[in-house]
Amino acid sequence: MTDTNYSSRSSLQDLENKLEIDHDGPNKRKRWVWVTGIALLASVIIVAIAVPVSIHRQHSEQNAADLSPAINTQTIQQNIAVTTSSILTQIDQSEKIKADSSSAVSLITADQSLIHPPDYSHTISPYANLTRLKIYTPPAQARVFVMGDIHGCLNEMNRLLDVIGFNAQNDVLILTGDLVFRGPDSIGVIRRAKELNALCVRGNHDDKVIRLKGYMDKFGIDSMSPKDEIMPEGQVGDPLKFKNKHIAIARIMNVDDYNYLAGCPLILDIPTLEARVVHGGLDPYISLLDNDPWSVMNMRDMDSDRHPSKSKLSKNSPSSDNVHWTTAYHSHITNDRTVFYGHDASRGIDLDSKTIGLDSGCVYGRKLSAIEINTKKLYQIDCRGEDGNDDD
Length: 392
Ligand SMILES: *[C@@H]1O[C@H](CO)[C@@H](O)[C@H](O)[C@H]1NC(C)=O
Ligand SMILES: [Mn+2]
Prior knowledge:
Layout: H1 2-24, H2 28-67, H3 73-77, H4 85-94, E1 105-108, E2 133-136, E3 143-147, H5 154-164, E4 171-175, H6 186-195, E5 199-200, H7 204-219, H8 247-252, H9 255-262, E6 267-270, E7 275-277, H10 293-298, E8 301-302, E9 308-309, E10 323-324, H11 325-331, E11 338-341, E12 350-351, E13 355-357, E14 367-372, E15 377-382
Parallel strand pairs: 2-6, 3-4, 4-5, 7-11, 11-13
Antiparallel strand pairs: 1-2, 3-14, 6-7, 8-9, 8-10, 12-13, 14-15
Helix pairs in contact: 1-2
The structure holds 2-acetamido-2-deoxy-beta-D-glucopyranose and manganese (II) ion.
InterPro entries: Ap4A_hydrolase, Calcineurin-like_PHP, Metallo-depent_PP-like
Protein name: Calcineurin-like phosphoesterase domain-containing protein
Transmembrane segments: 32-55
């Protein structure tokens, strides 16, 4: 842009110099040539200035759109990782991927044209940095443990790993999300998980920390005020005020902490074990990748409109038309996957034929649980617990 303007200006200078020469000369034909030249050059200058200005304006509008409440979905969709269509088609249609035995973690990125969000979908925050799906193939002989919501309870996490006899060389650890918040050492849990090469999915509390950290890194902590104001992210399912308590965690995270937590996908698929891991649940009535991320991280039930709902069992009146999402899942099974999930401390351990709920409320002083996928053996320890009111 600068170069164009600069060269236009210097050409103009050249032309003006030549014009002065022309003023001295009486030749009409020569003058006509110069007049035409000026007209042409004027057009070039207008184009040279107008085009960059309009491009610049489009950029500014895009930046403004990032912050405006009515966020343009196109822009947000670019923030979501993208997927290979052939693999996706296989997942959604046959649900039978023959995984390559040598592969470790394959990051599947989603082609947005294949995603058809349901009408109840929420805006995805521009700071979400969310991967929708990872496909993972564990080593053939490995024990594969799925551990429920840890919520910063590092001591309990380590004690349960001791009980299991966990060995990071041979065993695989997968976390159902909500590694952070409420417990005593959220950062410690992130670092321990990273150290163990644990896989994970994103929980609703992890998501808040990631969004606040993303905003903080982009605009600075000083921009996060007044404290009662809502962070501009569009129509997200859970608007965050600048005084949100998750900021305390975001503030002390380093780049590695952030990258680890942000790298936890919404859905972890393990085709060789016919397993799938999410934090909250899945809408059984739509295809896997169409699932609304906020709902996957927050849902517990399906409501009478067959939409995901975050309302808790304890708050449901007996007359509620809500059903546990796992009930709906069992009556609409279209694949062989067993879904491992957390987030529902009120219900606690919930072992069903195709769904395994693992949040047993450790941070509320109940238990921390893990299950080994191949043997379905359950391991639990008692937790010391923090104050809180079952906000999962
Ligand atoms: C998004 O998260 C990944 C880790 O999954 C990280 O490498 C990348 O830097 C993050 N992007 C931004 C913009 O923070
Ligand atoms: Mn949760």
